Amino acid sequence: MPPGHLRYYGSYRYDSREALERAVTAAWSSFYDEETGHRVDGQLVKQGAQLHVDLTLSTAADSRFAAAGMLDVLARAAIAGSVEARHGSDHVDFYCSGEDD
């Protein structure tokens, strides 16, 4: 991973393929609404009602904020799973499935 970048890695499970599609569409919309010109390396892989996340983004504040918004959307709609943000070997954050308390 390049210096100055965070890796977001994990997976979520949804009630259905349709729920996954709605979540991904809403998440990308949220991410790009930030209008900061983020460069995203990696992928979101859909398998049935499962979403595998493996993304690398800059540690710049605007990129982190946009990524947090996107992952919050994905996590809220999920019924299980989590994504972890790491900077090298350091844990930065978790985005766990379900509604925030």
The CATH topology name reads Alpha-Beta Plaits
CATH class: Alpha Beta
Structural class: alpha+beta
Strand order, sheet with most strands: 2-3-1-4-5
| Series of secondary-structure elements, N-terminal to C-terminal | EHEEHEE
Low-confidence stretches: none
CATH architecture: 2-Layer Sandwich
As a whole number of angstroms, the C-alpha radius of gyration is 13 Å
Helices and strands in order:
Blueprint: E1 5-13, H1 17-33, E2 41-47, E3 50-58, H2 61-77, E4 80-87, E5 90-96
Antiparallel strand pairs: 1-3, 1-4, 2-3, 4-5
Q: How would you characterize this protein structure?
A:
The chain has 101 residues and is α+β, with helices and mostly antiparallel strands. The protein has one domain: Ribosomal protein S10 (Alpha-Beta Plaits, 2-Layer Sandwich), CATH 3.30.70.600. Helix content is 34%, strand content 40%. It contains two helices and five strands. It has helices at 17-33, 61-77; strands spanning 5-13, 41-47, 50-58, 80-87, 90-96. Strand 4 and strand 5 form a beta hairpin. The longest helix has 17 residues, at 17-33. The protein is globular. The termini are far apart. The model has no long low-confidence stretch (mean pLDDT 86).
Quick rundown:
With 101 residues, the chain is α+β, with helices and mostly antiparallel strands. The chain has a single domain (5-96), classed as Alpha-Beta Plaits. The chain has 2 helices and 5 strands.
Which features would summarize this protein structure in a list?
101 residues, alpha+beta, Alpha-Beta Plaits, 5-stranded antiparallel β-sheet, 5 strands, 34% helix, globular
